[in-house]
């Protein structure tokens, strides 16, 4: 996931990432400051930083840390579900003029383990193959976790659909019984009315 968004001074912006359990998430970001005179986003001023907060689906805070104008954060998900990643600048009116905006470039990678190419080149070919195999096995485990998580979501959705269908069926039965009861009551009331008026 690579994107950028704008925030104001001390404003908090959050994104939601649906992440499987036991998955490494690595995020890289860079903050740029709007320059009124040049009408462009410039590299951020020294002292400008970002509070990064990550919350699990249960509301547990997995990460809460102040970083600089450019940085990398990482966390591991313990539960599958929607994780909330929030950004807020630590800027004051001394660091950023009032009303100015910041642009945040964000790149989030879920479940990726990066190869250290320099370490691979320094080793012989057998070790290189071993390192690449380990990397491939990690990627296979990540794909397996993703598939398990999708199966869990599909099963949960199927159960919810079945419960809704069952509720609709019972509601239809109740409506039918009410209609039959009202019909019988109307027939009896009309019959009693005609008898009392001696029309039958």
UniProtKB/TrEMBL annotation:
Location within or outside the cell: Endoplasmic reticulum membrane; Membrane
Keywords of this entry: Endoplasmic reticulum, Membrane, Signal, Transmembrane, Transmembrane helix
Transmembrane segments: 168-187
Its membrane topology: Single-pass type I membrane protein
Family: Belongs to the EMP24/GP25L family.
Protein name per the record: TMD11 protein
Protein's UniProt keywords contain Transmembrane: yes
Domain GOLD: 12-110
One Pfam family it belongs to: EMP24_GP25L
């Amino acid at each position: 996931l690579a994107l950028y968004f704008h925030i104001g001074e001390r404003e908090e912006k959050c994104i939601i990432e649906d992440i499987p359990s036991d998955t490494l998430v690595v995020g890289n970001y860079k903050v740029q400051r709007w320059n009124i005179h040049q009408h462009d986003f410039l590299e951020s001023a020294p002292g400008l930083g970002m509070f990064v907060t990550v919350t699990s689906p249960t509301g547990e805070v997995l990460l809460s840390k102040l970083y600089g104008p450019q940085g990398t954060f990482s966390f591991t998900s313990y539960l599958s579900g929607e994780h909330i990643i929030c950004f807020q600048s630590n800027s004051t009116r001394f660091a950023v003029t009032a009303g100015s905006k910041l642009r945040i470039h964000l790149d989030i990678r879920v479940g990726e383990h990066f190869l250290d190419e320099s370490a691979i080149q320094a080793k012989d070919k057998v070790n290189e193959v071993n390192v690449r195999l380990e990397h491939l096995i990690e990627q296979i485990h990540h794909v397996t976790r993703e598939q398990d998580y999708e199966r869990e979501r599909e099963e949960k959705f199927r159960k919810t659909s079945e419960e809704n269908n069952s509720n609709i069926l019972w509601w239809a039965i109740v409506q039918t019984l009410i209609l039959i009861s009202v019909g019988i009551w109307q027939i009896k009331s009309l019959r009693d009315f005609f008898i009392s008026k001696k029309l039958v």
